[in-house]
Specification:
The complex is a heterodimer of chains A (about 170) and B (about 180). Chain A has about 170 residues and is α/β, with parallel strands linked by helices. Chain A has 7 helices and 5 strands. Chain A has a 3-stranded parallel beta sheet with strand order 3-4-5. In chain A, strand 3, helix 3 and strand 4 form a beta-alpha-beta unit. The relative contact order of chain A is 0.16. With about 180 residues, chain B is α/β, with parallel strands linked by helices. Chain B has one domain: 2-Layer Sandwich (Beta Polymerase, domain 2), CATH 3.30.460.80. Helix content of chain B is about 20%, strand content about 25%. Chain B has 4 helices and 7 strands. In chain B, a hairpin with a 4-residue loop joins strand 4 and strand 5. The radius of gyration of chain B is 21 Å and the shape is elongated. The chains are: A alpha/beta (about 170), B alpha/beta (about 180). Chains A and B meet through helix 7 of A and loops of B.
Chain lengths: ~170, ~180
């Protein structure tokens, strides 16, 4: 939590705007309901009660990209699927993040052939890569927490220079 | 319904349609009839509709590319029709060969609607055209794909495998997405 100090019992919390915004962004992140292959099974396991991603504010997978801000690319992306993935990414509203889950999404893994995109970073920018074939739920949770760490480094002063925000 | 006695498919085919059979191969209890591509619909229709044969189920259509050395065969591409008789519980394979340039054969959709997808898949991956097919489009790959990947002269890999010694070189050419 980004709360830095608390004054008495006035119910007032002081913090910097950076920290408050990043706290809000990481604390309630809505992933896109989107699975491509066997990694999606592990992603479902991560959301189920045993591992329970809602501990990190991710209990809700949105089936609409308009309402999602995190895309977990769970599985291999075929070249036929690539335009769809890119379109879903484009439809998500800023700020948005991408996790490439598993070897296939990161580098195409064992499938070095004509049919698959050799790493989803060819079509969309990726924030966190998770190794594993498929990764265990702990690894996905670690990836999500790594993304949280990354988001907490964001500063408002960077927004002015970030290309994402300039475009928006 | 009375089921008539099962006939020998090779003998009855020789009697009914002389000169269409090129060769008959028996291997591991499977019969393969090799015929000319122009006769394929006629022969398969005969096998399907004749009393005593009734190969009434089209299990599969498969295609083979014999590139690079197909000098021992009549053509580069082989197309095999796998038929099954549900009445007599037996199978037969009808095989044809097609030339390298513009391989083309009559469609089987006139006999079985299921041939639609089977032939589209072969067209997609092997580049064999089926004359008279109602919807000769790619089935698995995207419409703007160039080439037919299951042909043996199609480039296999897309990207050189990255090891520590060549990783940097490959990363330089990798098309990373801009946001």
């Amino acid at each position: 939590m980004g709360v830095t100090s608390k004054l008495g019992n006035l119910g007032v919390v002081t913090t910097s705007l950076d920290v408050a915004i990043n706290w809000a962004r990481t604390g309630a992140m809505w992933p896109l309901l989107f699975g491509l292959a066997c990694c999606a099974i592990e992603m479902m396991a991560t959301q189920a009660s045993d591992y329970d991603m809602s501990r990190f504010g991710m209990e809700l997978n949105r089936a609409s990209p308009r309402q999602a801000d995190l895309m977990i690319v769970a599985g291999r992306v075929s070249r036929k699927m690539a335009p769809v993935v890119r379109q879903l990414y484009d439809q998500m509203s800023d700020p948005k993040w991408v996790i490439a889950m598993g070897d296939c999404a990161s580098t195409s893994g064992v499938y070095n052939n004509y049919a698959l995109v050799q790493g989803v970073d060819e079509i969309i920018p990726v924030d966190v890569y998770i190794v594993g074939c498929p990764p265990r739920p702990e690894q996905l949770i670690h990836g999500v927490l790594t993304l949280h760490e990354k988001i907490k480094q964001d500063r408002i002063s960077d927004w002015a220079t970030s290309s994402e925000m300039l475009k928006a | 319904m009375e089921i008539s006695q099962a006939h020998d498919p090779v003998a009855s085919l020789r009697a009914a349609l002389p000169d269409v059979l090129h060769s008959v191969t028996e291997y591991a209890g499977e019969t393969t009839l090799e015929i000319d591509a122009k006769n394929v619909v006629e022969v398969v229709r005969y096998l399907r509709d004749t009393q005593g044969l009734l190969y009434n189920f089209l299990s599969d259509i498969s295609a083979v590319d014999y590139y690079p050395d197909y000098s021992q065969r009549p053509g580069r591409f082989g197309v095999a029709y796998h038929l099954y008789s549900m009445i007599y519980n037996r199978r037969i394979r009808v095989k044809i060969y097609l030339d390298e340039d513009a391989p083309e054969v009559d469609t089987m959709t006139t006999l079985w609607p299921v041939a639609d997808f089977l032939e589209r898949e072969i067209f997609d991956l092997m580049g064999i055209n089926f004359r008279g097919h109602p919807n000769m489009r790619r089935l698995l790959l995207s419409d703007d794909w160039s080439g037919h990947p299951l042909r043996r002269d199609y480039p296999l890999g897309y990207e050189t495998v990255q090891f520590s010694f060549n990783a940097e070189q490959i990363m330089k050419h990798k098309p990373f997405a801009k946001d």
